[in-house]
Each structure stands twice: as structure tokens, then as C-alpha cells.
Inverse folding.
């Protein structure tokens, strides 16, 4: 079974530029999560989708971050414009049912 | 207080030592995950537990649901085991919610 796919693996951008990350969850997984992990900290939930609807985006900085999940499958997370403090690993995870969760390898973003 | 607490935050050991990393949580869960994150940031899922014990190679994970506690053990540790180990729990709050610990940075010296 293919895992959660994320791209790119690494991205370096200048502050005030825009960036987008892509996540392809495991086929059939209704729930998709985006997390932000700043160096030295545990991952923090940015947004959670159930199919193509948003379940929780309370910690998403909506002035610069946006996310969508088209047709309840793939998802993109965008930052516009990026700030230095956005440097982090962006982790996507997906799940089906209420027990198992599967994790992507993450995208490491460096804002300079 | 975080819902998921890991200890220690940092651990340095010599090659060959037996390693234990602990995870405690304060809420009802349906599953607990142990993840490994290498310096490049990539995350690998090691175990998913809802009860008992699982073993994969030199890695052993246990969970005690009554005590809300899990441990990850590494036997015969090796420098390539150096990584951040993260505990995450699946919480049922209406929709499923994943909550992560802050991670344990493990360094194994040769």
C-alpha cells in the first residue's frame, strides 16, 4: 500500500515570497491533517479536513496560510507571503476510521 | 499542561546501551504512535499501538492503557538510531484528532 506522499521534500525561499506544499493521502482516507513543526518542538496542527470539509483550522494563521482539499483527495497548503518564523517542517498525515493514522515524510521549509 | 508529555527531552548514550523513551498522556485515546524523525526532517512511522506490546528488530514499544503510559525501547543502540523520537496519540473528540508530544532527541555516540 502506498504511503502518504508529500512534495517537495525541501524548499528554500526568501521572505515575502509564496510557497505551496502538496500532499496525496492514502487512497480512501477521509481525514487529512497538516502540521507545522518548528525546530525543537512537537508538531502543531494547522488544519484538519474530513473529506473536503474543514474540521479544525483554529491554529491556522489565516492572514498568510491557506489550505484546500480538492474533491476530498489531494491537498495543498500555501503560505503567502512567507515570514522567517515560517521555517519549519510541514507534515501531512491521513487516517481512516478512528485508530490508524499514516504520516508523510514532511517538507522542510527554510525562509531566508 | 500538554496532553502528551515525553521524557526525557534529550538523551545521550553510548553505543550498545539499552534506551528507554517514555510517553504519558492525559486523555482517552484510541491509539498511540511512535515516530522517528531524522535530521533532514523526514518522519517514519515506527509503531501504532492500542494495547500490549509490539517489536520490530531492535525496537520494542509497550503501552499501558490504564496508566496512560507508553515506552519505546531500543536494544543494542547504534549511532544510526540517533534521531528525534515523537509520540503521538489519536484522540476521539467527535472527529479523530492527533496530538503530538514535543519529541525526544536521542544521540548515540560510538
Amino acid at each position: 500500500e502506498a504511503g502518504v506522499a508529500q512534495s517537495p521534500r525541501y524548499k528554500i525561499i526568501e521572505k515575502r515570497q509564496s510557497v505551496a506544499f502538496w500532499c496525496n493521502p492514502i487512497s480512501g482516507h477521509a481525514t487529512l491533517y497538516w502540521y507545522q513543526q518548528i525546530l525543537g518542538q512537537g508538531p502543531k496542527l494547522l488544519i484538519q479536513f474530513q473529506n473536503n470539509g474543514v474540521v479544525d483550522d483554529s491554529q491556522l494563521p489565516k492572514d498568510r496560510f491557506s489550505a484546500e482539499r480538492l474533491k476530498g483527495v489531494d491537498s495543498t497548503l500555501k503560505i503567502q507571503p512567507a515570514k522567517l518564523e515560517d521555517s519549519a517542517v510541514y507534515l501531512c498525515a491521513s487516517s481512516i476510521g478512528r485508530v490508524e493514522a499514516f504520516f508523510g515524510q514532511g517538507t522542510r521549509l527554510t525562509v531566508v | 499542561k500538554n496532553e502528551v508529555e515525553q521524557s526525557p527531552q534529550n538523551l545521550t548514550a553510548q553505543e550498545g546501551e539499552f534506551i528507554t523513551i517514555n510517553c504519558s498522556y492525559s486523555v482517552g485515546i484510541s491509539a498511540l504512535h511512535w515516530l522517528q524523525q531524522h535530521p533532514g526532517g523526514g518522519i517514519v512511522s515506527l509503531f501504532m499501538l492500542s494495547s500490549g506490546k509490539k517489536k520490530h528488530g531492535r525496537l520494542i514499544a509497550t503501552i499501558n492503557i490504564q496508566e496512560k503510559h507508553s515506552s519505546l525501547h531500543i536494544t543494542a543502540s547504534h549511532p544510526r538510531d540517533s534521531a528525534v523520537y515523537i509520540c503521538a496519540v489519536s484522540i476521539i473528540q467527535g472527529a479523530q484528532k492527533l496530538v503530538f508530544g514535543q519529541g525526544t532527541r536521542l544521540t548515540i555516540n560510538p
